[in-house]
Amino acid sequence: MKKYLIIFIFILILSLNSQVDARGLEFNSGATYNNFIYSDIEDGEVNNDKWVREELNEGRGHYFEGTYWLNNRVGLGLGYQKSISTWDSIEYYDEESYRDFRSDYNLSSSYGRLAYRLNNNVNLDLALGNYSYSEDYYADYSWLEKDSNKKVLIGEGYGYRVGKEVNHNLSERLSLNTKAFYQQAKINLLESYDNDKGSLIEIEEDKVLGISGLGISLGVSYRF
What we know:
It is built from one helix and eleven strands, in the order H-E-E-E-E-E-E-E-E-E-E-E. The chain has one helix spanning 2-15; strands at residues 24-35, 37-42, 45-47, 58-69, 74-92, 98-117, 122-141, 148-169, 174-194, 199-202, 208-223.
């Protein structure tokens, strides 16, 4: 991540020489579609063979961000994004007995954003953020009155996102934007569900989950 901090500082220094003629506040919100690759990281070694169900490699989400343009080239902002990957299934044991269950992988991030304007329609985007991760499990058993609903894994970490944003102006202040990006995060796993205790317990070993992948977004921007 250090190299992205260097890029961040370098672009910010360059911006001081830019002409100040495009200051303003911009809000941007929309939906995302993400591809996820999961990996185990132990003692600095990455295991890219971590297996998860195919449906959990894709996730949909949303984001919201505000950016203040310092000049006609550089903008600084804050944002929040969240995505959910879901796998569900149902098992029948006989005509009346079944188990209906679902797993949700939740990934969210609060981040700082650096945007660099190449021209009136294209921006480069770098975001550094704090990531939160959780796995939720839901199950409906036909022979039980109460459904099962529990968190089975919780973690936090840091990551980055780099991308290219294209703006399609609808009016002087309103625009439609599309973005293609790559993101990567390292999640320190903190708690996991213990079946014997029936609750989350602290993970004593150092366990890290790597999450990376490509994504696209479609949103609307409004400039003040």
